[in-house]
Amino acid sequence: MGKSLFKLTSLNLNGIRSATSKGLERWLDASRPDCICVQEIKAQQADVAGRFEQLAGLQGHFHFAEKKGYSGVGIYTRHEPSDVRIGYGSPEFDAEGRTLELRFDTPARKFSIVSAYFPSGSSGDERQQAKFRFLEQFHPHLMQQRGEREFILCGDINIAHQQIDLKNWRSNQKNSGFLPEERAWMTKLLHTTDPGGGLVDVYRLLHPETTGDAYTWWSNRGQAWANNVGWRLDYHLASPSIAQRARAASIYKEERFSDHAPLTIDYELAL
Predict the structure, then answer these.
(1) 2 band by pLDDT with thresholds 50, 70 and 90
(2) Is the CB of residue 49 less than 8 Å from the CB of residue 60?
(3) Nearest CA among 76, 90, 183 for reference residue 130
(4) Res 1 pLDDT > 50
(5) For residue 246, what is the DSSP state?
(6) Is 83 exposed, middle or buried (0-12, 13-18, 19+ CB in 10 A)?
(7) I need a surface site. Which of 1, 102, 133, 219 has the fewest CB within 10 A?
(8) Integer Cα distance of 112 and 130 in angstroms
(9) Among residues 183, 159, 155, 146, which one has the least CA distance to residue 265?
(10) C-beta of residue 263 within 8 angstroms of C-beta of residue 10
(11) Integer Cα distance of 196 and 80 in angstroms
C-alpha cells in the first residue's frame, strides 16, 4: 500500500448554475477529488443557499463578488479547514470575490489551499489596468504567504506564461493574457533564486514541454474548441516542498462544463 494521494482539482465554472446543469456533479461523483477550487461562480449567497453548499459530498466555502452574476470563488473540500480567509485585504479586489484561502494547519505544519480568479483584461484598457493593479498588489501577498506557510494556489490566472502555453502565440503578443508585462510577472513569481519568486508551476514541473494537451481554455468564438486553439490559463502554483509531492496531472476534456477544462493534480499529501 503506497502513501495516500491527495487529489486537487481547479475549474473556472463560468457560472455554477451553468456548470452543474452540464453534469459537473456527476463528474465529481465519478472522479472523486478530495478538494476542488472553483472560480467565476457568478452567483450570490442567496443563489447558493439550499442548492450548492455541497457538491458530490464536498463541503463548499465561498467568496462572492458584491456585483451580481460576476466573479466569485469557492473551495469544496472533504476535509474540515482549521480557518477560512475571505479575500486578501484589498478593498478593490475583495469586493470582486477574487480569492479564498482554506487553512489546514496542524501543530506540525502550516498549509493552505487557495482558490484565485485573476482579473481578465480582455474587455479593454480599463480592465487591463485593473489587472495590472491586482498583479502588483497580489505579488507581495503571495511573498508574505510563501514566507509563513506552505500552500497551493489553484486558479484561473488569466495569463499564458510561455509560447507553449497557447496556440497562436505570435498573433497574441499584444493581447491581454500574453502581454510581456504579464508574462514577466509570472517569470518573476516562478524564479528559483529571485527573492520575489520561489513558487512552482506544478503542471509544468510534471509536463515541461507539453503544448496542445496543456490548454485549459478555448474561446467560444469560431472553431476554437474543435481546432484546439486554446490557452493554458489555469494553474496550480505551489510552495516548492509541496510541488515536489505532485505525482500526476490531468486535464479533463471528455465533457465540457464550462469554457475551461478541469485541471487535476495528485499530490502525495495527507491533510
Answers:
(1) low
(2) no
(3) 90
(4) no
(5) E
(6) exposed
(7) 1
(8) 26
(9) 155
(10) yes
(11) 32
Q: Which residues contact 87 (CB under 8 A, 6 or more apart)?
A: 63, 93, 94, 98, 99, 100
Question: Could you read off the pLDDT of 101-145 as tens digits, one per residue?
Answer: 999 999 999 999 999 999 999 999 999 999 999 999 999 999 999
Q: How far apart are CA 219 and CA 260, in angstroms?
A: 9
Is beta strand 5-12 parallel, antiparallel or unpaired with respect to 35-39?
A: parallel
The CA–CA distances, whole Å, from 160 to 7, 9, 120, 165, 177 equal 24, 19, 12, 5, 6
Q: In what order do the strands lie in the sheet with 35-39?
A: 54-55, 58-63, 73-77, 35-39, 5-12, 263-268, 246-251
| CA gap 193, 231 in Å, rounded | 27
34, 156, 201, 234: the catalytic one is 156
Q: How far apart are CA 91 and CA 234, in angstroms?
A: 25
Percentage of residues of the chain with pLDDT beyond 90: 98
Helix H or strand E segment including 123: none
Instruction: Round the average pLDDT of the chain to a whole number and report it.
Output: 97
Residue 194 catalytic? no
199: confidence class by pLDDT, cuts 50, 70, 90: very high
